[in-house]
Design goal:
This protein is an alpha/beta fold and 108 residues long. The chain has one domain: Rossmann fold. Helices cover 33% and strands 20% of the residues. The chain is built from four helices and five strands. Strand 1, helix 1 and strand 2 form a beta-alpha-beta unit. It is globular and about 30 Å long. The C terminus is likely disordered.
Length: 108
């Protein structure tokens, strides 16, 4: 795995990116127009605006996230927590591509 897209913002996104960078993996941040100067955007190797501030017009648009990931040739998408991690559309869109969906597996 060479590059991942982190489909979240804030501290969660930065934690995922720090771990990826320690592993030698490049990171891509996505952001809404209001978040253009957010820390996760500045921390990522690449960043792409995905829409307007309401999350249903940006962070929750699974099809847009997949489109960006394919365009930037990422190997996987980490949905973070909340937002897309709870959205079944992301999984169904990802299945139609060669992208890996990186999720945290919890033991019972």
């Amino acid at each position: 795995m060479n590059k991942i897209l982190v489909a979240n913002r804030g501290e969660i996104a930065i934690r995922v990116m720090k771990t990826a960078k320690k592993m030698g993996i490049k990171t891509v941040a996505v952001y809404s127009t209001v978040d253009r100067n957010a820390p996760h955007v500045k921390f990522a190797d690449e960043a792409v605006c995905i829409g307007a501030p309401p999350s249903n017009q940006s962070y929750l648009k699974a099809n847009k996230i997949i489109e960006v990931a394919k365009h930037l040739n990422v190997d996987g998408i980490h949905p973070g927590y909340g937002f897309l991690s709870e959205n079944a559309d992301l999984q169904s869109y990802a299945k139609k591509t060669t992208l890996f969906l990186l999720v945290l597996a919890l033991k019972p």
